[in-house]
Amino acid sequence: MSAGMTENPLVAFLASYGPSPSSDALADEHVQAAVARHGVPPIEAPAPKLAAMKNALLGDNPTSVILTGTAGDGKTYHIRKFFLDLAGGDPSEWPGNGGILSMRLGGRPLRIIRDLSQLTDAAKAQEIEGVTRCLLGEDQDTLYLVAANDGQLLKFWRDARDNAGGGSERMARYEAVLTALTDMLHRDLETSEEGSLRVRLLNLSRAVTGETIDAVLDGILAHKMWESGCEGCPQMTEGANPCPIQMNRKLLQGKKPDGADTFRRRLKAAIRIAALNDQHVPIRQILILAVNILLGDTKRKDRPLLNCSEARRRAKEGDYSHVNPFNNAVGLNVRPEKRRALTVFSAFESFGIGYETNTPMDNLLLDGAPADLAAALEARDKIYGARLFDKRLRAYKAGTEASADGERFMAALEAQRRRLFFLMDGSDDGGRLSPWHLTIFHHAGDYLAFADALSNAGEPDASAAETITKRLVKGINRTLTGMMVDETERVWLARSIGRAEGASGRFTTLPPVDRRGASSQRLSASIDRATGRPRLQVALRMTEKPLVCASLELRPLLFEYLMRVADGSLPSSFSRQCQQEVRHFALTASSFIQQYQQRFSPEDGDAQQIRILSVMRDGSIAGRDIGA
Fold it and tell me: In the structure, what pLDDT confidence band is assigned to residue 95 with cuts at 50, 70 and 90?
């Protein structure tokens, strides 16, 4: 093959994973066909729950397994890996007859339902009794391995219950399974309480971690076909304009020129923030993201991915603006309607990357100040920075930009902000040159630091958690009172009285909730192990074991709201929904505390001492009794 005809089959194979109509290889069912078609080894994606499946099905006390999760989490991939690699299944039998496989596993019969949603109604009717007997422990010999999303799983037993006839024994048995599974899903439990079901429920939506993302990226970036497949390409010779695909690959790998892996770390942090904000990004979407960063091309929206010939053409012409990996990371090479339909790009769009900024960030881009930071960024990436931006910047400063060129300048400036977000180290502590100021989540660095401090291997980082908790308490007090207070040690459960319907007020009928000390109620910060989110809780210490009476789950958006309010924003200016969440938290805590005070101090009767709140010179809050 001549140098001019070099085409790496890996590039064409990766394109089948990208955001295009031909991306059928994303479904596990089509992976093997794509591998055979392009003649390349498959991408080895991680299977983070495979060990748990092995434990359950092949352990000393075997039990059935149900895999749940959203589309693209890898349910079918996990089952195929178990069937072929751990259970010794015959490859010729995969994917089974009508989505069902039967085999012997350790002397026991194993029924595999590869995807519950693909079963016909007749097939479901045939399987429901067997899997129910197995889960209820009536059949202790047979094992089941089932994959289904949450809705399909519950519908399976709900339909069986509804079709069983009122009052029948079968209906009661199906209802028992449905109730137990609903509780397990709601509380994110892998096993049912008191062993009511013999099953391990593994939620793959909770399995996407930083390590999982690294494994997906490494499966693509370290594929062995990069070296052999690109051998002989003229763009790989010294002195030539670099191949944009290889350049983007090195930036994502963290190789050359300075070895920094900032791009990868920022992607992982953004995906984590999205998940904690209820925008879970499944493994399939991470594959789309990685491929789009490498191959994305904005020149033709109907063909959003490069092939080798187009990559060489872009390199020879020095046309790197259309293959910018930082624009590709937010899907700008994809048509808007397609982009919004893809979870990962929809999640990143909500960050506002490229459209958010502040004065120090724009000073860095427009004036190169501070100079040391500008030089470090240019050393990190010599292709997508000054090389693309300087000419437009000079014309802008000289005032020679026509209106059309002015629009192009703004697009170029937004692209540079995205480059800053993904490449700059900055301080992830909310400082003015933090890359998170280029998103709506200015305090995302604080948020992740707070979560990590609270979940630090069972030994919370008290000092880091303390600093952030103080700011959150200040934000809560400002939200509830409507005053610019600086109170960080106590939460005042302020409210309006009479007919006032406002979201804040300067009255309370309760003493403040302390963060520390010997008071009967206490505010504390902890991590929710199921969701990974930080939370603030008010607990009563009137009983032997503290009783949690109200919990404020800190999604990234709510955390951002409280931190901005603590920094001086008006409570209603950022999010009325967040303002209402804080108010609801305070009302729930107030109601619970009042009930227990009446229970433990009945002599007080129904009298409530009303206090009017005011702000002192040092910013603290004081309450003055005005009567019952």
Answer: confident
